Amino acid sequence: MNRRPHKWKNGQPIYRQLMDELIAGILDRSYHEGAMLPSVRVLAEHYDVNPLTAAKAYRELAREGLVEALRGEGLMVREGVRASLMKRERTRFLKEEWPVLQARLARMEVDLSTLLVAR
After folding, report:
1. Could you give phi then psi for residue 53, rounded to 5 degrees?
2. Predicted TM-score of the model (pTM)
3. How many CB atoms lie within 10 A of CB 78?
4. Which residues partner with 75 through β-bridges?
């Protein structure tokens, strides 16, 4: 895992943004269910954050039930977590992001059929 320069946003704690990165990795299968996650030290180095920040991100993922600690081995992505994350992300998109996007498309007089053809 090589160091990955990352621009953190000011409006949200870095540990939360790091959690979002890890969740995206689970969704895009960079981190497979049943696979071990990088150690806190490796994760902190990869994202150029303090190890305490990386540890907090992992603690929160464990608290949410997305990963489980294996004593003496590290953290593993829980089986079945990707499907629940997909459902959660779809619901959030449809509730929070889609209405904003839909309103913007309406203001620009762009309909969905135009978007589908533009691909």
Report:
1. -65, -45
2. 0.81
3. 17
4. 69
